[in-house]
Amino acid sequence: MEIEVILSESNKLVLLIKGKKETILNLLVSKLLDDANVEFAGYEKEHPLIDNFTLTIKTKKGKPVVVLKKVIESLIKEFNALKI
Is pLDDT at 84 greater than 80 in this prediction? Predict the structure, then answer.
């Protein structure tokens, strides 16, 4: 997976995510929207035949990259807790 920062502001982060399916993005957006500091989280597919997505996160307060890291760490803990 390749990630490119398109925009990084104090309350908005836009990432280009290349080479992944929507599954991980659905999970990330769902968890981001559960955070009270997140005003908007969503993604869009650049082209129907190419697996490139633009993920946008806008926060009410705090840096979006910090919120994203917190959500990713939380998901890692949840998956590690699975005893398969």
Answer: no
Give the count of alpha carbons within 13 A of 29, CB side only: 16
CATH topology of domain 2-81: Gyrase A; domain 2 (3.30.1360)
Give the closest residue to 61 by CA, choosing from 5, 6, 7, 10: 10
Q: Taking the complete model, does pTM exceed 0.85, yes or no?
A: yes
Q: Where are the domains of the chain?
A: 2-81
Neighbours of 66 (CB within 10 A): 12
Handedness of CA 22, 27, 29, 30 (dihedral sign): positive
User: How far apart are alpha carbons 38 and 57 in whole angstroms?
Assistant: 7
